[in-house]
Amino acid sequence: xxxxxxxxxxxxxxxxxxxxxxxxxxxxxxxxxxxxxxxxxxxxxxxxxxxxxxxxxxxxxxxxxxxxxxxxxxxxxxxxxxxxxxxxxxxxxxxxxxxxxxxxxxxxxxxxxxxxxxxxxxxxxxxxxxxxxxxxxxxxxxxxxxxxxxxxxxxxxxxxxxxxxxxxxxxxxxxxxxxxxxxxxxxxxxxxxxxxxxxxxxxxxxxxxxxxxxxxxxxxxxxxxxxxxxxxxx
Length: 234
Hints:
Elements: H1 14-35, H2 43-47, H3 50-61, H4 70-86, H5 94-97, H6 99-113, E1 129-134, E2 137-141, E3 150-155, E4 158-162, E5 172-180, E6 183-187, E7 192-201, E8 204-207, E9 217-226, E10 229-233
Helix pairs in contact: 1-3, 3-4
């Protein structure tokens, strides 16, 4: 396959599309049954939170990194509690429990920040792209002829990383990404092939690269992005 015809990769996996399709079918089926008055109970009003349970279960089964379990568990718990509330089995006051979501967000940040990736941590600092930011903006360029990967850890931030003048030390390098409520823009050389291994939750990952031939190296972008955007281009 040549560069011009190479398909774009996004943060939406086949599993995500399957779950979304099933959720849409279930939503339409419940709405149709309600309109036909098939049951005395309004199914859509009572059982819609089970869609959150399905979404969370799918995220748990998908490949993930440390800390990525927090969001799926929160989805499952919220779906079960809301369903029980709709059925009159218990009473849930969201005004009292909303701080739990902040606690879960902090727990997710702590567990992910302690995760270690498959990157060359013994490499000199100028040969790695290590970015850690909270509520900030980072604009960094790396032109190392021995680039060995790195890690981007961003929360409520904007990161622009320019690797267009860099060269890899070996045939491939791994760049770990852990981002939440952040935008990440990555520029790579035209002879680099990018392999996206990202999970995106309520966000978008777009690979705009079209590597020239022959390929000089392969950059593996691995990790997750929650409520944000990731763009890779030349």
